[in-house]
Write a sequence for this structure.
């Protein structure tokens, strides 16, 4: 079956512009996670969705970052007024709500470059 | 000090070698221990997972967890060029943190023919 998909696969934007990154989880997966992977910091947790609500936003690095999820499916991560330090690969993962931590399936990521 | 420390390498070995990858951690609440493999420009894929302490074997791969030392290892036997990838350890305390994963930095492995 289809895995987690993310779009765009690559995004180049100018500093100060807003960007939207999209994640389509595996059908039926109610839990959704966003992570960020950068050279200096490795892979870091950003936010977790349970259905359409986000009980854990503790990893969002600043108020320029926000995310939403609609219909318990698609999620969008928005970065406002992008900075060069936002350049990274943004990964999305999904799982069944009752699944264990090892049952998260990752998408291929969106590679964001801020010039 | 990061919660999970992993030697980033890079590690270069000849085909057929035994590879040892390691992570240490500081959070004693971690109960789930995972190893992911990540090829270039791809998302991480789960290789092995262990709940609590102990060993687990799957083909050429063996995962070990020593909770008393807060140390986990992944061994790859008879390494193949196709094993060349970045290996990430990841941990979770399970339910209290909604299963969110805390990762090591990743170790870049190259197996040359």
């Amino acid at each position: 079956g289809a895995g987690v998909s993310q779009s765009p696969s690559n995004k180049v934007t100018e500093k100060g512009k807003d960007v939207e990154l999209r994640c389509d989880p595996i059908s039926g997966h109610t839990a959704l996670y966003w992570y960020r992977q950068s050279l200096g910091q490795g892979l870091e947790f950003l936010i977790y969705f349970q259905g359409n609500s986000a009980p854990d936003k503790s990893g969002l690095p600043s108020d320029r970052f926000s995310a939403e999820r609609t219909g318990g499916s698609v999620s969008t991560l928005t970065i406002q007024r992008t900075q060069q330090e936002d350049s990274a690969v943004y990964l999305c993962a999904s799982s069944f709500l009752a699944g264990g931590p090892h049952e998260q399936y990752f998408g291929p990521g969106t590679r964001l470059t801020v010039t | 000090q990061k919660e999970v420390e992993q030697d980033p390498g890079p590690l270069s070995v000849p085909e057929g070698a035994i590879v040892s990858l390691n992570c240490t951690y500081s959070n004693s609440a971690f109960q789930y221990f995972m190893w992911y493999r990540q090829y270039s420009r791809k998302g991480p894929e789960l290789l092995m997972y262990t709940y609590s302490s102990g060993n687990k074997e799957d083909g050429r791969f063996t995962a070990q967890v020593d909770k008393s030392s807060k140390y986990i290892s992944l061994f790859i036997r008879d390494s193949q060029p196709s094993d060349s990838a970045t290996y990430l350890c990841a941990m979770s305390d399970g339910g209290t943190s909604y299963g969110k994963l805390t990762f090591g930095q990743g170790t870049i492995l190259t197996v040359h023919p």
